[in-house]
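Quick start: read one record
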Amino acid sequence: MKQKPDHRSVRRRTSLACGLLFLTYFLVPVESDPNPTRLGLRIVLTLVILGVVAWLVTSQVRRQIVAATRERAAPPMAHLILALMTGLLAFALADYVIARVAPSQFVNLETRVDALYFALATLTTIGYGDVHANGQLGRVLVCAQMVFSIGVVATGFSLVVKRLTARV
């Protein structure tokens, strides 16, 4: 018979996975590539990864919504939290890569911390304006972040808050 993991163990693994994702974000190499073919492949790969992340987060949000509407036990929130964290870091990395490859695409986006700050400000719809998209490619990516934010992240975070407040 399969044993259900205790909440502390799930929280610990989720925290460890989030920490590893965060560490990976800062360690992954993103130097510019003078070879246009490789650069194009890297851009395509980044877009594919963003698409996979969007699909993963969307499927986790959908599972949470289905469970809530059918009054069933919802899947672990850890999966949703990890998917949301991955989405945030994937967009931050995409912003950083584009800013490194084409510096004119973003204003004041120079470091990975700047990119994480910008992605978080965009995904939470705060948008201070100190870092912003300036070129067409940067704006297309920011539009994708906005759609992701409205359609997925807002729903995902509201489900997380709802589940956490229901426990209290």
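Helices lie at 7-27, 36-69, 77-101, 112-123, 136-167.
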